[in-house]
Amino acid sequence: MLQPRKQKYRKEHRLRGSYKGKANTGNALNFGSHGLKALSTSEVTSRQIEAARRVMTRYTKRGGKIWITIFPHKPISKKGAEVPMGGGKGAPDRFVTIVKPGRVLFEMDGIEDETAIAALKLAAYKLPVKCKVISKSNK
User: Cα(22)–Cα(24) distance, rounded to whole angstroms?
Assistant: First the structure.
């Protein structure tokens, strides 16, 4: 699973207010001819990214090339079960990335159009955001 090698701080604020607006960067296809674009906002975990990557790789029978254009930098902490109030912030539990509408999550190239579109649709089922499949021809 994806996680940063090194971080400046072990724990971060949640910053739930930064969900507003659309994606300014990463909102166009840069590498492949087909992509998966987010239509809603959510936190995507490294496990969800890995699940989507695996389903695409298996569906295409390891053909073509897949680019993951998001990376989970943000640590999310969690306290243990039945821990009383106080005692500080919990230990880091997982890593997430905040995805805003318009962000391209995955890109594919080197395989037939129908196969790429079907693989990207399967990947969309694994993610907590609404997505649509885009192509270089019909952005």
Answer: 6
The CATH number covering residue 101 comes to: 3.90.1170.10
* Rounded CA separation 40/102 (Å): 8
Total count of domains within the chain: 1
Token representation of residue 74: 């943000």
Contact 38, 131 (CB under 8 A): yes
Bridge partners of residue 65, in order along the sequence:
109
Q: Nearest 5°: phi and psi at 131?
A: -135, 160
Q: Is residue 25 part of a domain?
A: no
Q: What is the pLDDT of residues 4-38, one digit of tens each?
A: 999 999 999 988 777 889 999 999 999 999 999 99
| Per-residue pLDDT reduced to its tens digit, 46-74 | 999 999 999 999 999 999 999 999 999 99
Within a domain: 70: yes
Three-state SS sequence of 28-97: CCCCCCEEEEECCCEEEEHHHHHHHHHHHHHHCCCCCEEEECCCCCEEEEECCCCCCCCCCCCEEEEEEE
Question: Which SS3 state, helix, strand or coil, does residue 116 take?
Answer: helix
